[in-house]
Amino acid sequence: MASILVCCAPAQGHITPLLAIATHLAAVGHDVRFLSGRAYETRVRAAGLEFIPLPAAADLDLDHANEAYPERAALTGIKEVQWSMVHLFVEPAARQVAAIDAATAERPTDVVITDTGTFGAFIYCARPLAERLPLAFVNIGPLQSRDDDTAPFGLGLHPRPGALGRLRNRALAAVVDRTVYRPIMRAFRTAFSDAGVPMPSDLRFGDLPNSLDRVIQLTVPGFEYERPSLPDTVRFIGPVSRAGASDVPLPDWWDELDDRRPIVHVSQGTVANNDLDQLVRPAIEALAGENVMLVVATGGRPVAELGPLPENVRAAEYLPYDRLFPRLAAFVTNGGYGGLHYALEHGVPIVAAGRTEDKVETTARVAWSGAGIDLRTQRPAPRALRHAVRRVIADPSYRLASARIGGEIATAPGAAGVEAVIAELVPGLAATSEVQA
Questions:
Q1: 412 in Cβ contact with 406 (< 8 Å)
Q2: In the Cβ-directed half-sphere of 153, how many Cα atoms lie within 13 Å?
Q3: What is the pLDDT of residues 284-306, one digit of tens each?
Q4: Same domain, yes or no: 339 and 225
Q5: Do 423 and 436 form a contact (C-beta atoms < 8 A)?
Q6: Number of separate domains in the chain
Q7: Where are any strands of DSSP class E within 298-423?
Q8: In degrees rounded to 5, what are phi and psi of residue 331?
Q9: d(Cα 207, Cα 194) in Å, to the nearest integer?
Q10: Residue 136 included in any domain
Q11: Fewer Cβ in 10 A, N or C end of the chain?
């Protein structure tokens, strides 16, 4: 069995999948320690794992970024992306590396596992392998790869085949490198210097497969762009948080769900739900009076904030997805990666409306895969939303595409797939495991 250090940025959307992986690895016998922010100490210890706190300078409040950093809240578009990448992810990178070094010096360790928010992974992997441990990077969002097969990450553009498509991608990459990515790479140079590690001359922002030992992608190939030139460092394992048995109680209106009418679910997730006017309220307005039952999850916000609800709308703060998703005719979402995979797992067609963080890329993949419609906006008009919901329910091609991806998810290893990656990175571990078995 291996001794494993898991390092995770202190954010709800990152902690959930990394904790699922860490818990699984501990359950099969590995020695697992979990390095993250103090806000998650109780949750980590409740999972039976040893907790190590990040240094205060790297323990940022990522779950409430706009409230914690008012200067960010005033920004939109590219400016917001640049500010967030520089201040929330790149600047803490050197301190993350120092925390990893301290933890691995304290106890013999075989492998390090980090999440998408731990940008210190790029500095750590820039060292010669003789001076560090092997590292597996768990990518909790769409794959970021710098190649001629796809447009630069963050533009939400689908692949375009042929020579013209590759020419388009190279031209866009040159523009994005000179503009959008320039301040991010400047911050990276400072972070590498602070860590005492020379920055590789070929390091490019958003190039995961060429910068890290292994990239563990939490999806299946059917929900990711085809890349003929993708390096052999990426491992697709499917989602690790699936709609299994839930301890969320059934709301008191559950028996009122009418299966004679298609059931539609809308949610903005548990993090990006501070403004329910973005998607939840437009969905209520769009589908009020339609021949559907609309089920709303507020993600922890009081249901009373929604005000009076139409006859065909039911709402709760949280819902048992294992019971709900098998009954859905459509899922309306702002594009959270985890929620999308719950829908795909059950072959549910999707209407997506999200543009912040990596959602411009997640929603683009919804349309590209054929599993749903990308409304290409953060705040859809009720009329457009109503038309999209009608369309994904009436046209069986969306459900068939979602079900095809769901079939891939059903056979994907999930958290158990990380074991195979560890065996690749730690020589002799697979043979040892076979002998013990």
A1: no
A2: 21
A3: 999 999 999 999 999 889 999 99
A4: no
A5: no
A6: 2
A7: 313-316, 328-333, 350-352, 372-374
A8: -125, 125
A9: 22
A10: yes
A11: C
